[in-house]
Design brief:
This protein has about 2050 residues and is α+β, with helices and mostly antiparallel strands. It is built from 62 helices and 53 strands. Helix 4 packs parallel to helix 16, helix 5 crosses helix 10 and helix 10 crosses helix 15.
Length: about 2050
């Protein structure tokens, strides 16, 4: 019997603390009964917080009484239920605030004269009779409020002392003493208030009592949410409920805990958390809590808590939480069962004639059925768990652990996350401790989990059976809560209705403590007397019984044998082991590889253990040397394959075998197998040793109590000692499990006397103690290494996890001395100390759990150091003798063949070439022998990284495997873990060091080094690779081998690192002082302007004549670098745009000043300019940088026009018809173009060729001024002319754009008139140039009838732009024609007509209409979209600027990384959703190729069909521009599709025009940080795509392209080195061969020191047609390839493999490697088998053409004729065959195909033009509204929408900013009168009727994203046709994502497209970005943030949160912000 209530407490409002000035009210305990604590139940402090969870507050009106149950947990984890009834008491108050005081504390309550204070009556109980506690408190309140005659003291005393509750299963009325049946009765009582009450104890106190709480929770949240909450609770997640009802919170928490039965929740449990304790929510431990919904704001900061809204019926799971759910089949089954119970009408909903259903099911019945479903779910999860319990001790108390790994393995659930977390939880550990004993009182779950397997199988397909079984369990649960069959009518008086509203109600009286104590004392005395009455207190207790084991999980071998087909493998294993132990080594070696492969099967590994165990039992453990080696290899391989398992049965079975097998090294020295098997991580796992120890203890405990009959049964079993026969293994039917034996011993425990019991305890303890000693010895053997000096090979895992093992143990650490150590120090070299600590930790833990006496434990700890020391001494002799054994015979290292001049840097490091992610070469599904792994060595030479070896597979061991790549192509190297690969690849040793090398030639070397190769040599190899890959100087590469660099150049090369990166340059430049050191004296020099100091390059001027070579030689000999005279040519230091932007520089770099202390490579022109203006000469130290070679070695002395005429690109100019008839530099009268010498001395641009084609109308001085308008001074140059249309192809760099500082400085200022004149002069030269180009472009109007229409003509008639729609310059306008087109005017007054900021057509322009015909442009300029803001070609009728989105260099770099991982993966691709083609698609490589081909195709159409000239002006003009220009010429000119023409094209466009090969290919250490950029490789891939579609149009084959792709990064030739023609000429002038002298100026360019790739190609081509396309038959001049993805192919260069001789691109090496195959010439009839991964298929397969040519050569020799060139023979042979003559007439089908190609090309071109222009529909005329301008303060830089000048107070002095309140038009105050009165009102939703409007979502892409292909289909095609809807628009300040700066943007809310777009200005046609509203999570007001614009309204901030990021906005005013929030929320709803 126990008390119903432990304490009664009266808690009231604390008025004293309120008067003390506390801002928040508090409660205090007024009275408590009894006043002294019970001995068994101490009083819990802090009750007042839980009485008012929301806080104690005074109210102005009385509230109705409330009741709820709060749950408190004491320090012993016992729960106490606090029943709280709260009512209001009137309190007379005086006003706390005088009338004359206006301020008050925030949130403080103004006290009136009558206030109401809360008062709570609390009953604290350990029993969960919630309804009874509520009735008792209600009776006390009723007696008080209605003034009943019963004293309140009597009621309280009766509750505390007189009500005694019997335990579970009572009270009972035995029907008769001999019968087992009983009748359960009600416990009736009264507290003396005229009441009649009763309660009913449940039948079992272990089953939860829920009433209908679970049903209510399921009704509130739904089925799926409840399942999620169950999964979260059982996997130890944080769960928080919130509701407006405290009762609902308690009920929900109670219901959730009941669903976890039989597991008990072990973490923080607070159903009602007071507001004062909300900081508890930040606890790191899991919890289940409940809070009131008023604390919702506190929940917003919880990022790792699952929140359940009981009122709203939803749960919120944060993104950071991965909620694991039960297995899909179990979860679906439970969900279906819940649907059957909760929605029974669902299965009848579709019936035509449904049968009537009784829907009046009680909520309590539904509650129990739901619990039954979850109980069955728990049983399914834990099915068979008792077979995995390990028995450690039986007496005096059972000690049991759970083998999680075995359970997961037997259930085939290894890796199942949900179940793994359940088994690792504290709840399950407590369940094992409590319910693990096999003899105890059982409950329904024990029976349910024992039969669940049969139950589920019977219910499959029969839902009615499942429902019946669920109801049976539900009935049991219902009877448990309601055992009495009879009903009882209670009588509970209630207070008078409305009694709480009485005004004159007396306060709750003070109770008499003495009277209450007397009543309690009287009740306790009666309870004592009642307990003496045996009949009254008699309760039938449940009896203990054997816990049913349930259906055993089928043996793994049995399940596998059902489908086993490995009988042959097992037979091979048996035969091989027999040969080993019979010492038939040769026979065993034949079967050994097959046996190693078969060990991947677990069945084979178990068979190996059994076979080896048989030989140990036959005393055959002492082996010979070779026997020992082979057995050790088998054991290592088996352990390696089993290391990924969490189940340790195989390792535990191997343990006795490892300590048994041995070999004799010499007299007295024996080596055991454990010394050779220590490297596996399982031996370092503490969990493994615990599991193995417990299992062996269980076996011995079982043997201790086994009967004689069981002994006889066991004697018939051969493998009694095998771990598989224990309870943790697989129990046969003839055995009794250890749990069954333990159950019997527990049942008989009471029958033994004390001596017998003590003896049993001692025997069990001795077993544990002896096993601890035994395992300590085993651990010493397995952990102490053979060579103590090398340290431990595996780190010691103190948490028991090794590798993938995550086995959990329920054991608790024992000794305090080891508790503080979680891991041992890994950096300790004292191996013995580490091993001692590891073993001591193990011994301490297992012995403490098993109850070993402390004395025995101390003895064990004292023994361990001696055991370790003795074993180390023994191993010392073994190690010494083992080193004397003959080493394993290893294959001889094959030496690689080297090129002439190629030197070995490091000798071969022995190792293994491992297979990578490519399936080639490994056999298997690809077929053929396994060439990998191969054993050999890796070499490092001055040119290559080479691996050469032989396969380890016997079937291919006679072949030679070679894999190599140029060391200059090394892309990435990293160390890899290869420790576990030795056995998986069947290697004979355990390797530690591994290296992975990846190259940009798409090769991958995965090397596992031999054990003889130490870590130091591997590290040295890595360092040497890096040193050769990134040399200090370009002249240290292999291409310059055997060359001598001039002494001056050598001295200057040493200082190149001083300006290697822009970051160093900027840092040093900005940190320089104002003193300049010159010739030893100090001169104070005025610093240049700020602009000169921050902008990098300076503009070039006409230089003085440089010093002669003799002068330079004298200066060099004098060793006075400071005295070298300096010219004024600009330096050519080139930088990436992204680097400049990172440092705050303008994205388009200009020439700039260098600081002298940096050792800059070229001298700044600004210094010379300043010195010349002052009339003084300044000298600087000349320092050389590699990318521009030297500033002092001038090529001008030796560079002449006659020499330049021999250049291929100059010859190509002549071929195109430029200046052919007369002198090259002096065109005859009337010629439009000339070859200019303006850059012959590289004065204009260092990166341009010395000779360029320009219009004849421009002088050289005009070209110099024109160059200032372009980045890097790369002015427009003509590279090709169409032979028919005479259209021109031009290239240049991007136009200069103004950054923020440039725009501020360009503001009108009287003192800056000089800069304005300079800008004007630049614009004049632009006008001249483009006028000359347009004038000399016939525009092709009569060239072809099928011409491409212009941009205007393709638009609908309503959208055709008239000539006047483009802004004109009036006659009186001051300035040049293109001044407004390229640069903004200097002031608003100079622009009489409005031009939008981005060069788009304004309403004013469209308003002036004139009748003229549409025109087409004579010159199309393609450039970056960012240039469109400053590029306004509308002022020029014949020019048009088309912005184009291209992939930037950074995108190309990232794409290469992804492409290499797709084509050459390091591991096999196992994810089916991430296959090869998916990875290639994700790399965006093909999209970039498509972008290049589409733009080149657009140039073809414009030039060939329309006859317009095309100019490309992207970035700096040397990457994307070069790609497109080169490909366009290939498509239009058949000459470039020949071998000679392709060479000329590369020489012209890539080499002469300065593609940065050194920088992009990272050829030196100075460029290492920039990253490899495959710009040239992309061009070659584009040519490959065209070649694949037009194979007859190219004279060269694709092998020629592969040859170039390989050698442009190999650094074997000097052709693709350095960054410009200037640098190459300087190198050729000052780099000399050792044996061949060269003198500048003697005309020896052809035989100079430069090693040419083209000479190498011509040399090969003269011998054989290796690069000739034998199918070459050109039939069309212009090619138009398809660019859709289905027409593009992945280049086989990226995936080809050639293991026979390595890459075939070094022809000398390849021919030597394959020479043995060519010893006997093949006949046409010969057949040969080749392997695609081993042989080079393209080179090895017979070619009839080649064979015939060789035969003709042989016949000529036999006839005595002079051998002719193969091309001559081929041409002569082709003439004799009419079929080989070029077709003169094309077939109809070919013509149709060409027309289709032209049509598709035209469509793509038109798409590019339309998307680039983004034509805006004109606004309707006649309906325009007037602007409403208001003065506005601009906090961020903003442009005037009329004059495009800056709006900023500091710049525009005297001008106030004006802003239209309707449309947001920004303007200067002076510009307002000139603005057209056409206001587009805010919120306009008008859509365009026809034609394109502003860019759609498909058209608006960010920089670097290609234009969408023409073949868009599906939803995108439909979406692109949707017009624009402007639901709301206006200006907002947006905070940047990276730099966090605030910028003003024009935002447009589009409700139809569900987008929020933003533009730079209102009239900007180009969208800057899009926010997709479907990703928006919330939009709400926000607080001001740091760095926000000044003078902005603090209430105008709001945040928009998406799934990707959070956007911060600020509007002009608070109403504007609220309107934006409202509009966005309307779109979201």
């Amino acid at each position: 019997m126990s008390r119903l209530a432990d304490y009664f407490v009266v808690v009231g409002y604390d008025h004293e603390k309120e008067q003390s000035g506390s801002p928040h009210g508090c409660g205090k305990i007024l009275q408590r009964f009894p006043e002294k604590d019970w001995e068994d139940v101490p009083f819990i402090q802090g009750i007042d917080l839980f009485c008012q969870p929301g806080g104690w507050k005074l109210l102005s009106k009385a509230l109705e009484p409330t009741f709820f149950i709060a749950v408190l947990t004491d320090i012993e984890a016992e729960r106490h239920y606090c029943a709280v009834l709260t009512f209001s008491e009137a309190v007379k108050m005086t006003p706390t605030r005088p009338d004359d005081v206006e301020e008050e504390l925030e949130g403080a309550l103004v006290h009136h004269t009558m206030m109401f204070a809360p008062k709570s009556l609390v009953i604290i109980s350990r029993l969960s009779y919630f309804e009874t506690l509520k009735n008792c408190l209600g009776l006390i309140y009723t007696s008080y409020i209605d003034s009943l005659e019963v004293p309140l003291e009597t009621l309280v005393g009766n509750i505390l002392g007189h009500i005694q509750v019997p335990p579970a299963n009572g009270p009972q009325n035995l029907l008769n003493d001999t019968q087992e049946s009983v009748e359960h009765e009600w416990v009736r009582f009264s507290i003396g208030a005229g009441d009649r009450q009763a309660l009913q104890p449940p039948l079992s106190d272990t089953l939860p009592v829920t009433g209908c709480k679970v049903a209510v929770l399921t009704q509130q949240l739904g089925i799926r949410n409840v399942l999620c909450l169950y999964s979260a609770a059982i996997t130890d997640n944080k769960i928080l409920f919130h509701s407006n009802s405290y009762t609902r919170l308690t009920e929900a928490c109670t219901a959730l805990l009941s669903l976890l039965f039989p597991l008990k929740y072990s973490y923080v449990y607070i159903p009602i958390l007071p507001a004062a304790l909300t900081e508890v929510l930040s606890t790191p431990t899991p919890f289940i809590m409940g809070v009131h919904s008023s604390l919702r704001n506190e929940m917003a900061e919880l990022l790792d808590v699952i929140i359940a809204d009981l009122d709203g019926g939803c749960i919120s799971i944060p993104e950071c939480i991965s909620l694991f759910l039960p297995r899909e089949d179990i979860l679906q089954r439970s969900q279906d069962h819940l649907t059957l119970v909760l929605n029974p009408e669902l299965k009848r909903a579709d019936l035509a004639f449904p049968s009537p259903v009784d829907s009046n099911t009680k909520a309590e019945i539904t509650d129990k059925e739901i619990r039954a479903i979850f109980l069955r779910l728990q049983a399914e999860l834990l099915m068979g768990y008792r077979s995995c319990l390990t028995l450690i001790r039986i007496h005096p108390e059972p000690v049991i652990t759970f083998n999680k790994g075995l359970f997961m393995f037997q259930r085939s659930l290894v890796g199942e996350e949900f179940l793994s977390k359940v088994l690792d939880s504290m709840s399950f550990a407590g369940y094992v401790n409590e319910k693990g004993p096999p003899y105890r009182v059982c409950n329904i779950f024990d029976k349910l989990v024992a039969n669940i397997a049969d139950t589920v199988s019977q219910e499959e397909g029969h839902p009615e059976r499942a429902l019946k079984n669920i109801r049976d369990v539900g009935d049991y649960l219902f009877i448990n809560e309601n055992p009495s069959k009879s009903a009882y009518l209670e009588k509970i008086p209630r207070p008078t209705e409305g009694a709480h509203t009485r005004i004159n109600q007396m306060p709750f009286p003070h109770l008499d403590e003495t009277l209450v104590g007397d009543v309690i004392e009287d009740g306790l005395n009666k309870a004592i007397l009642q307990s003496l009455n045996q009949k009254a207190s008699k309760v039938r207790h449940q009896k203990a019984q054997n816990v049913p084991l349930g259906t055993k999980i089928s043996r793994y071998e049995d399940r596998m044998n059902a489908i086993n087909n490995s009988a042959r493998r097992l037979e091979v294993l048996k035969t091989c082991i027999g040969h080993i132990f019979d010492n038939r080594i040769l026979d065993a070696k034949k079967l050994f590889p097959a046996v190693l492969r078969s060990l991947k099967s677990r069945i084979t590994r178990l068979a190996l253990v059994r076979r080896l165990a048989l030989h140990v039992q036959e005393n055959r453990a002492v082996l010979e040397q070779q026997q020992f080696d082979m057995v050790v290899r088998l054991i290592n391989c088996a352990l390696q394959e089993d290391s990924s398992s969490e189940e340790y049965s195989l390792s535990m079975a191997m343990l006795p075998l490892i300590t048994a097998f041995c070999r004799k090294l010499c007299t007295g020295v024996i080596q055991f197998a454990y010394s050779c098997t220590q490297d596996h991580p399982v031996w370092a796992s503490l969990r493994f040793w615990e599991t193995a120890f417990y299992q062996d203890v269980e076996i011995n405990i079982r043997q201790l109590y086994i009967s004689e009959c069981d002994t006889k049964c066991d004697s018939n079993d051969t493998f009694t000692e095998s771990p598989s026969n224990s309870a943790n293994g697989f129990i046969t039917s003839s055995e009794r499990s250890p749990l069954e034996i333990a159950a019997e011993q527990l049942r008989l425990w009471g029958t033994h006397n004390r001596d017998e019991q003590d003896k049993m305890v001692q025997n069990e303890e001795s077993i544990v103690y002896s096993q601890a000693i035994h395992y300590a010895n085993r651990m010493v053997c397995m952990r102490v290494p053979l060579d103590i000096q090398r340290g431990l090979k595996n780190s010691i895992f103190m948490d028991g996890e090794s590798g993938s093992s995550k086995l959990s143990s329920s054991s608790v650490s024992g000794s305090d001395s080891y508790n503080a150590e979680s891991t041992f120090e890994s950096d300790s070299h004292d191996v013995s100390h580490q091993v001692i600590k590891f073993i001591s930790r193990f011994v301490d833990k297992v012995c403490t759990e098993a109850g070993v006496a402390s004395e025995h434990l101390k003895n064990l700890h004292a023994m361990i150091p001696g055991m370790v020391a003795m074993h180390i001494e023994t191993l010392d002799a073994v190690n010494r003798e083992s080193k004397r054994l003959p080493p394993i015979k290893k294959p001889k290292i094959l030496k690689p063949t080297l090129l002439p001049g190629e030197e070995k840097i490091m000798d071969g490091l022995r190792g293994y070439l491992l297979p990578d992610g490519r399936e080639d070469g490994i056999g298997g599904v690809m077929g053929g022998p396994a060439y990998l792994p191969a054993e050999g060595a890796i070499f490092l030479t001055s040119y290559r990284v080479i691996f050469k070896g032989t396969p380890i597979d016997i079937q291919a061991c006679e072949q030679v495997v070679t894999r190599s790549f140029p060391v200059s192509a090394l892309f990435k190297e990293k160390k890899i873990t290869v420790g576990g690969l030795a056995n998986s690849l069947h290697l004979e040793q355990f390797m530690q060091e591994g290296l992975q090398l990846r190259s940009v030639t798409f090769q991958l070397l995965k090397i596992a080094f031999d054990e003889e190769v130490g870590a130091e040599r591997v590290e040295l190899f890595r360092k040497m690779c890096g040193r050769i890959r990134y040399p200090q100087s370009l002249y240290q590469t292999f291409a310059f081998h055997g060359s001598t660099v001039s002494p001056l150049l050598s001295v200057q090369m040493k200082q190149k690192e001083k300006t290697a990166t822009l970051r160093k340059l900027a840092t040093k430049t900005l940190a320089r002082g104002k003193k300049v050191v010159t010739g030893g004296s100090h001169h104070k020099t005025k610093l240049p302007p700020r602009k000169d100091r921050y902008l990098l390059p300076v503009e070039p001027l006409v230089p003085q004549r440089p010093p002669s070579a003799a002068t330079l030689q004298r200066q060099m000999n004098a060793a006075s670098l400071d005295s070298i005279t300096v010219d004024s040519r600009p330096n050519s230091v080139l930088y990436e745009e992204e680097d400049l932007s990172n440092l705050g520089f303008d994205a388009s770099p200009r020439w700039g000043r260098r600081s002298r202390s940096q050792g800059g490579s070229f001298l700044s022109v600004s210094d010379y300019e300043m010195g010349s203006m002052r009339g003084r000469t300044m000298s600087q130290p000349a320092v050389i940088e590699e990318n521009d070679v030297t500033a002092t070695l001038k090529p001008i002395d030796v560079l002449t026009t006659d020499k330049l005429q021999k250049k291929l690109y100059v010859q190509d100019y002549q071929r195109l018809g430029f200046n052919i008839s007369s002198g090259m530099m002096r065109p005859k009268l009337g010629e439009a173009f000339r070859i200019s010498e303006v850059n012959i001395h590289f004065e204009v641009s260092r990166s341009y060729p010395s000779l360029v084609v320009v219009p004849s109308a421009l002088t050289d001085d005009s070209i110099r001024r024109l160059a200032k308008c372009h980045r890097q001074y790369r002015f427009p140059a003509i590279t090709w002319r169409h032979p028919g249309t005479k259209a021109l192809l031009l290239r240049s760099s991007g136009f200069h754009g103004k950054g923020m500082m440039g725009r501020i400085k360009s503001a009108p200022n009287p003192s800056t008139s000089g800069s304005s004149e300079t800008s004007s002069s630049k614009s004049i030269e632009q006008d001249k140039f483009f006028t000359a180009v347009v004038f000399n472009t016939p525009c092709g109007s009569s060239y072809k009838s099928d011409s491409l229409v212009s941009l205007n003509a393709i638009l609908p008639p309503s959208m055709t732009l008239e000539p006047d729609s483009t802004p004109h310059m009036k006659r009186g306008h001051s300035g040049t024609l293109l001044q407004r087109g390229f640069h903004r005017s200097s002031g608003g007054k100079s622009a009489p007509k409005p031009v939008s900021r981005n060069g788009s057509v304004t309403d004013y322009d469209l308003a002036s209409k004139k009748d003229q015909d549409p025109r087409k442009a004579a010159l199309y300029i393609f450039g970056e979209k960012s240039q469109s803001r400053a590029f306004k070609m509308e002022q020029f009728n014949k020019c048009d600027f088309i912005p184009y989105d291209f992939y930037e260099t950074r995108h190309v770099k990232n794409s290469l990384k992804k492409l290499m991982k797709a084509c050459v993966p390091s591991n096999l691709l196992t994810d089916p959703e991430c296959g090869f083609h998916k990875l290639v698609e994700d790399s965006e490589w093909m999209a970039q190729i498509q972008s290049i081909m589409q733009l080149a195709g657009a140039a073809v159409d414009l030039m060939d069909l329309q006859g317009s000239s095309v100019m490309f002006s992207f970035e700096d003009g040397w990457d994307f521009t070069t790609q497109v220009v080169s490909l366009a010429q290939i498509l239009m000119d058949p000459y470039y599709r020949t071998l000679e023409g392709f060479q000329s094209l590369i020489e012209k466009e890539w080499l002469a025009f300065g593609h940065r090969f050194t920088h992009r290919s990272n050829q030196t250490g100075a460029h290492q940080a920039s990253g490899f950029a495959p710009v040239f490789l992309q061009f070659l891939d584009s040519v490959h795509q065209v070649h694949s579609q037009f194979p007859l149009s190219f004279e060269f084959n694709q092998y020629f392209l592969k040859m170039i792709a390989y050698h442009h990064v190999s650094n074997r030739f000097q052709t693709f080195m350095l960054d410009s023609e200037y640098e190459r000429f300087e190198a050729a002038t000052h780099v000399f061969e050792d044996k061949l002298t060269s003198h500048p100026g003697e005309g020896q360019d052809d035989k100079g020191p430069m090693r040419s790739f083209w000479e190498y190609i011509n040399k090969i081509n003269n011998k054989q047609p290796l690069f000739y396309n034998l199918a070459f038959a050109p039939h069309t001049s212009v090619l138009r390839p398809y660019t859709n993805f289905s027409s593009l192919r992945i280049w086989d260069y990226f995936r080809q493999e050639d293991l026979a001789g390595g890459p075939s691109f070094d022809r000398e090496l390849f021919e030597l490697a394959t020479a043995e195959d060519k010893e006997v010439p093949l006949l046409p009839s010969d057949r040969r088998v080749i392997n695609n991964c081993y042989d080079n298929a393209t080179q090895a397969e017979p070619d009839m053409h080649m064979w015939l040519l060789e035969e003709m050569l042989q016949l000529e020799g036999d006839l005595g004729r002079t051998p002719q060139h193969w091309k001559t023979r081929l041409d002569r042979a082709q003439k004799s065959f009419p079929s080989r003559v070029r077709m003169k007439s094309l077939s109809v089908k070919i013509k149709e195909a060409q027309m289709q190609s032209i049509t598709a090309h035209k469509k793509t071109t038109i798409d590019i033009l339309v998307k680039g222009k983004n034509i805006i529909e004109p606004q309707p005329k006649g309906f325009a509204a007037h602007h409403h301008f208001e003065a506005h303060s601009y906090m961020t830089p903003t442009d005037c929408d009329y004059c495009s000048q800056l709006l900023f107070g500091a710049v525009k002095q005297g001008c106030k900013g004006m802003k239209c309140s309707d449309c947001g038009f920004n303007a200067h105050e002076d510009c307002v009168p000139k603005i057209p009165k056409q206001c587009v009102r805010k919120g306009s939703t008008k859509e365009p009727s026809t034609g394109p409007s502003r860019p759609t979502s498909d058209e608006v892409v960010t920089a670097g994203t290609p234009v969408t292909p023409a073949g868009v289909s599906g939803y995108d095609e439909f979406h692109a046709k949707i017009g624009e809807t402007r639901s709301h628009e206006g200006y907002l300040n947006k905070r940047g994502a990276r730099l966090k700066g605030w910028k003003q943007r024009w935002f447009v809310l589009d409700a139809q497209k569900h987008q929020l777009r933003y533009y730079e200005t209102r009239n900007d046609p180009h969208c800057k970005g899009i926010i997709d509203l479907k990703e928006v999570e919330s939009v709400q007001p926000a607080f001001p943030t740091a760095g926000a614009p000044k003078k902005c309204d603090e209430s105008a901030f709001f945040d928009l949160k998406t799934t990707r990021r959070a956007y911060n906005f600020v509007a002009d005013t608070k109403p504007a912000a609220e309107e934006w929030i409202s509009r966005i929320q309307d779109c979201l709803s």
